[in-house]
């Protein structure tokens, strides 16, 4: 029996392989398109549900939309949280609000354990939400954990106070946050001599994308060697 030629256009096995490869490529392309949208929607939906679950138990049952329409309207707790936060912020900016905050903080200062927790959370909140001028300054390149191995970091500020005085360095000392992959919110705080820190031209956002993607997404959108 004659075997079909390798260049036979009517070979069914080749056509099946070609169709399977095309379907697989189309499926992977669809995943690339759908995954970011689906994950973003899922994350937003989950955060809204988490806020609703935290806020709605404090709302009397007669004021909840479920008692009127018969279904749980997701986002109602988020709306209450936003309105409540705006009102608290508006009151806190006034004289009475500032006096109440000072009085409450005075009570907290008398509680040893609670005082430490409150102070830490307050400093983080003020840094993240209130003091926008204290964000990271530049993305940088440092050698970590040893010479010859490079890592991306974020320059926060110049070290001051006791840290700058006690460090055995002749020049300035830079505070550098070294993020972890794929979660850049965790990492290490390093104090490095200024000459050991190489500032990068890429933005903070591009550097964060590079860290989160584990080196798969480069700022210029081209191959790493370009």
Can you summarize this structure?
The protein is of the alpha+beta class and 226 residues long.
What does this molecule look like?
With 226 residues, this protein is α+β, with helices and mostly antiparallel strands. It has a domain at 135-212. The protein contains 7 helices and 5 strands, in the order αααααββαβββα. The chain has helices at residues 12-55, 66-69, 76-92, 95-108, 112-130, 161-166, 204-212; strands at residues 138-143, 150-158, 173-179, 187-193, 198-199. A 5-stranded antiparallel sheet has the order 4-3-2-1-5, covered by helices on one side. Strand 3 (173-179) and strand 4 form a beta hairpin. Helix 3 packs across helix 4. It is flat, with a radius of gyration of 28 Å.
